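Incident review: delayed structure delivery

Summary: a single-chain prediction request sat in the queue longer than the usual turnaround. Root cause was a stuck worker, restarted by the on-call engineer. No data loss occurred. The affected request and its eventual output are reproduced below so the record is complete for anyone auditing the incident later.

Affected input:
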Amino acid sequence: MSRLKQRHDDKNVAIVEEEPYLWPAAVTQGERERASRPVVVGAGCAGLFCALALAEAGLEPLLVERGDDATRRTAVVDEFNRTGLLDPESNIQYGLGGAGTFSDGKLATGTRSPAHRTILETFVEAGADPQILWDSHPHVGSDVLPAAVTHIARRIGDLGGELRCRCRLTDIEVSRGDESRIISVTLATTTLDGRVTEERVPASDVVLACGHSARDVFDLLKRKGVLLERKTFAMGVRIEHLQADIDRALWGPSAGNPLLGAAPYKLSVHLPEALPGIGGRGVFSFCMCPGGYVVAAASEPGGVVTNGMSLAARDGVNANSGLLANVFPSDLPGDDPLAGVDLQRQCEQKAFELGGGDYRAPAQLVGDFLAHRPSEGPRAVLPTYPRGVAWGEVDSCLPPYVVEPLRAGLPLLARRLSCFGDGGAVLTGVESRSSSPVRVTRGGDLQSLSCAGLWPCGEGGGYAGGIMSAAADGIRVASALAESRRR
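Output delivered after worker restart:
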């Protein structure tokens, strides 16, 4: 293999010696009974794979998810798209599989983990196309993911774990003294007819994999004195082009070849330091969805949030991606660790207002955005946001330190992909949930620096940025937790 690489001298070819990943070694009965069963909060990819790894180790975790199972969740999302009736507990952000279930299921990652192969194999066993085992840009598809995550949840149950949907974390009890330690959690379960029951569950180990949108959990942690810190995140809009134009720009005469499918892209630029007030920021595409759709991803009443997804076939007319700019901790006022959450909420509420108050989204053509004028309607690219759009301007639903970098970055991105110079491309706002603005600080043992037995995990904890990195972090936390039971 090394001689073959030397012969071709191709910088895009790398030799990777992968060691097979093994699930955490099984604990003994005594080690399992030494403390209460672990509670995993959140059944997105981090929580799901964390619970699976804990179950493989024999620790019989309790996995709680505030949203619905995959079948009912899909119906609830469809109902919101049709009627604008938002369920704050079950939506594109909350429910089995987390936000990733409705974001194409992209499995490419820039991170490294010995668990990556196992994660891919787990998805294949759960019904994903075996092609993801070798494809350089693997994806599952938002039409396949609901069944896949259901299969993984069922596997957790077969191993002695338990999944509770429509079950929300409402309180944590922490001991006081020489060392703060988690003692219990309070869980509120809502039945389909609306009845709520609360239960205090003793818990010496709680994995916090709640996702980047669980703002009430961040509020709870702050009240309980758990150490939080701001982190850099990103905000912006969704940008839509015709997929055929993306194909031609990237593949030229080969565009349309069925063997190639829909072309993906990944773009970024670093703005020159000399640009006053915005220099040094990154502008980049995020969660690019070939042949995909812009989705309505609100989780709070009175706020508009956009995201994107593709089905497994990626055969939609449009392509879309997040068009984002960095938000740094220094951009935010005061010293509140949740100031980034406040900014997100303000922007989402402004977008709701601009959209007319019925979860339509504000939209603007790229050419009009660059020219500082409102848009009156579409050209060739018809927006796919399911609640409909309100044409106008997107400037006022984002802060200037996001809007101006986007305006400066678009012509630079057009040098790399000509479609970004298309004045008829559509911008839909706001894209505010690309990552968490908060980090729940943890130490080298992966437990909270301020509360033993609390294990921050995945995107919500501030330690991942996509399905693969979140799943890998979940497995890493599970391995550390299982090892702690053996001491």
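Verification: The longest helix spans residues 467-484.
Action items: add queue-age alerting; document worker restart procedure.
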